[in-house]
What we know:
about 160 residues; alpha+beta; Immunoglobulin-like; six-stranded mixed sheet; six-stranded antiparallel sheet; elongated
Amino acid sequence: MSDQELHPDDLELLDRLGRIAAVVDPVPDAVVELGRAAFELRHVDTALMRLMTGTLDEAAVRDANGSGMASHLIVFEHEGVSIELEMSRRGDFANVVGVVMRAERPYAAGSQVLLETSASLTRLDLDDGQFTFERVPVGLARIVLEHDGARVMSTPWFDAR
């Protein structure tokens, strides 16, 4: 039954009951958070990439040239698409340089890559499959691949450091 099928008195009663319930028994914060998490499932068809290689031993790549910068590599794959990331950290920020490939060729033109952190969302157009995010705050992040405005796949959350 839709709102158009309800009598105006019933609509008014439902509105009043809703306002009373919001005061007497508000929705708990945990339920709101679970609702937001469930809303994320609207992209359930978005493929989740899997981590192919762990980070290299940080001691092996830390400050190899005396610059005070630590660097490591991460590779994610799903159904022939790979995202390779090189992260270099200096202080509280990291630079993320990446390439997206499909079958040994750069990923499709017109695609975008998003970098999500707990505090921000940054979007870049792929340039021949390549991208660079600078001054990324150290912490959890993930890469989301979009094509023609639709999410195609994303990485699991990883530590950008």
